[in-house]
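hey so i finaly got around to running the thing on NitT/TauT family transport system permease protein from Paraburkholderia lycopersici. pasting the sequence first so u can double check i didnt mess up the copy paste, my clipboard has been acting weird all day
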Amino acid sequence: MSSLPVRSGNAPEGATQGNGGRARRRLARVSLGMLGLAAILALWWLGVAMLAGRNALAAQFGPLAALQTFPSLVVDDRLFAHAGASLRRIGVGLACAMAIGVPLGFLIGRVKTLETALSPALQFLRMISPLSWMPIAVMSLGVGDPPVYFLLAFAAVWPIVMSTASGVQHIDARWIQLGESLAATRAEMLWHIYVPGVAAHVLTGVRLAIGVLWIVLVPAEMLGVSSGLGYLILDTRDRLAYSELMAVVLVIGALGFLLDYAARQLYRRFGAQREA
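ok and heres what it spat out for the 3d tokens, dont ask me to read them lol
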């Protein structure tokens, strides 16, 4: 009499191997990424070491000097307060850009006549550097946060508009026809067809906008504000504290990396599900 196969409660062997393979690939990607960062730090150290032989001031721009100044930067220069001010401005600028860009992109993608009429003007405005508006922003809005918000929103709105319009145009027409055949209201069409259809594209635009925002933020915070990472760059330069300046540069790079990582995770969590 042949024995029946015994079913184990453990995970299938193929699934276990698959999970192990994914873990190894993830570890390999992380290792390669860390290796790339280490190579950049080594090149930075080597370049400063070569310059320091002819100019003693160059040693203050090295990675070791920057890392040594972090405690004083956190305590004396209130690094966290400045970083918080910059992140707050990023949030306000992105919120304003989304409030304008998502509805405008939806209308452009939905109404062909509107797209034809606005496309040349939007392309023209998109190609103007946001920093070109700095004098006009200061003259119109004064000094402080308002001109910074304007510049950030102006910089971030274009990726969101373009991505949203592209998402609307790529919605499967059969879904729209199905909703119309079922006599769906405008609100139902918007919530059940258009929002899921454009979610991935909007999140792509948000990720692109965050990258642009972080680049524009530092010069924008040189418009008479008294806080923020851009202000801290100016302050350390004026005090000739070059090692602290390089430490702030490291902080800017690290925060920008974390923002982009958060945007990528948000896309993987929601955008990829919507596309699937």
